[in-house]
């Protein structure tokens, strides 16, 4: 009597597991974009910038951030602490080549 009960329990658990997997794999219902029938928002006009005017950076930024932003605005070069060092390939992930 114990073996049929064990098989029935295993079959019920298997069916429940398969049903749960199927329910979890269904894609979510589609989400549609809001309709554009309402009134349009007014266009934002950008004030012309004066030549030579610069936007001040926020005062809460540290001095390093000011330097980094200046480098980004100039377009580089961006120094790195390991510039000029020799690459060791200690992990042996790159193929071995003869020196020279």
Which descriptors apply to this entry?
RNA binding; Ribonuclease/ribotoxin; mainly alpha; hydrolase activity; 100 residues
Q: Can you give a write-up of this model?
A:
By secondary structure, this protein is mainly alpha-helical. The protein contains 2 helices and no strands. The protein has helices spanning 2-25, 63-74. The radius of gyration is 32 Å and the shape is flat. The model is unreliable at 49-53 (pLDDT under 50). This is Ribonuclease. It comes from Stenotrophomonas nitritireducens. Residues 26-100 are annotated as: Disordered. Keywords: Hydrolase, Nuclease.
How far apart are the first and last residues' alpha carbons, in Å? 79 Å
Helix content: 25-40%
Q: Largest sheet, described in full? A: none
Uncertain segments: 49-53
Instruction: Give the overall pLDDT as a whole number.
Output: 77
The secondary-structure class comes to mainly alpha
Spatial extent as radius of gyration: 32 Å
Order of helices and strands: HH
Give the helix tally: 2
* Total number of beta strands: 0
Using the alpha-carbon principal axes, give the shape.
Answer: flat
Beta content comes to under 5%
